[in-house]
Amino acid sequence: MKCLFLYNPNSGKGKIQKKLPLIERMLKTRYDEVTLYATKSAEDLQRKAAEGAAEYDAVVFSGGDGTFNLVLGGIGEREVDLGYLPSGTANDVAHSLGIPKNVKKALKVILGGRREKLDCMQINQTSYAMYIAAAGAFTSVTYSTPQRKKKRFGWLAYAFECCKKYMRFNSFPIEVTCGDRMEEANAVLILVMNGRSVAGFPVNKKASMQDGKLEIAILRERGNLGFWGRVRAFFEIISLFLRGSKCKNKHLLRLEGDSVSIRAEEDVVWDLDGEKGDSGNIGIQLLSRRVTMFVPKNKKI
């Protein structure tokens, strides 16, 4: 059997290169042929993932949630086993699946874990996301924070960027259709979730990547936000992230289903797994059991 290992040398703090001998040695205990490839750009990563899905039995990769999204986009509808060594800043996919950040322990998941079919999301019939599609307050911080700051400060870089640039968030009009339900609202934040973790917090703790449904949380406000409206919304966002499914307030709308359509203005930009995605209207379809992945042997996913 053949395995391709892809790694982003700039993800996290760039420590993965020091682990390459260990990675190659351990993967060779399962695979007859192991190819290591350092990606040069997002386009290169996606292209190589597509080639790997066609030529190899498994594609193993290291990086953050953005790297995961690019690999997912590269493999598309192809059938291939995926193995993940999380080395990014937030690692929400890994948190949702219980994959440890320690390289040796993550490799043991690939070598001794189990293969599972996981749900993912298709966006506007053209792209994919594994765990989150989001818009509104603070969502652009994951892709606008400079890589050098993430490497130096880790998760704190996101907090610094929020304080520096994104406190003056606004509400925006949306129309949401989920199953037979249609809602109109002025939204501050929209989360369409397939995983348990968002920005390192268990926002969707009771969910599963095998439950065949999307969980949607929309924080609503009335019209334009003034100073005190922003203060209130800020604390409601904090409550949502800290309390997750236990968060209850009259401004929070929750929906679930296997698809959702959201009409929004063109200046609304969507965050897909921590990467800048489509703008304006968006249609999200859950693809049930579409991704084959190695997960921890005894973890509930």
Mind explaining what this structure looks like?
- This protein is an alpha+beta fold and 301 residues long.
- The protein is 29% helix and 35% strand.
- It has a 15-stranded mixed sheet that branches.
- Helix 1 links the parallel strand 1 and strand 2.
- The chain is elongated.
Number of helices: 9
Order of helices and strands: EHEHEHEHHEEEHHHEEEHEEEEE
Please provide the count of β strands.
15
- What share of residues is helical? 25-40%
Structural class: alpha+beta
Q: State the distance separating the first and last CA atoms.
A: 27 Å
Mean pLDDT: 87
Short account of what is shown:
The chain contains nine helices and 15 strands. The protein has helices at 20-27, 42-55, 65-75, 92-97, 103-112, 141-144, 147-153, 156-165, 227-243, and strands spanning 2-7, 33-38, 58-63, 81-86, 114-123, 127-129, 132-136, 172-178, 181-193, 214-221, 252-257, 259-264, 269-272, 275-279, 282-295. Helix 2 crosses helix 3.
